[in-house]
Amino acid sequence: MRITGGRAARRILKVPKGLNVRPTPDLVKQAVFNSLGNRVASARVLELFAGTGALSLECLSRGAASAVCVEKSYRHSEVLRQNFQLAGFPLESVQIRVQDVFTALAQMAAARQLFDLVLADPPYGEKNVGRRSNSFAQQLIDDPNLPKLLASSGRFVLGHTRRDTLEILAPWQEVKALKHGDTMMRFLKVVSAT
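Below the sequence we write its predicted structure tokens.
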């Protein structure tokens, strides 16, 4: 796994041993960042279920101002920290929160934090034919705090498996969807009620 673009392009990243982390594939990252284009420059980034921090590192390499990474596993957060050091980004450009994503969302919303980009490629859920998804991806869409964290022109990029059919409800509106193998990446924005 590597950083695919920007000033730290081709930098190889560490990945924790075992099957508890599923890094976003490089081809998927390239497609996502090609779609985001100039939105990344100077952006305040929030990465949820951060794992190795690959998406945040990609943002910083491409000119993002700062990144907040939320990862529940202390072991994964240590690998994430090492990846930021290996890539040579200043420590003040990243904040690592070792805690449950949904607890962090509530705390950051209460603190009125705002982000230009929110990125999440959480562990995949089960196939959900004939019933509503209960995956982490669906739980993020349903979380009332997440829309409060997105700046008015911001984007929420959400990864999930194609076999997990999500229900996208207000205030979210899908702007774009990318498919790559079994991976779906959805680009969402918040639409205010009129």
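The CA atoms of residues 67 and 165 lie 29 Å apart.
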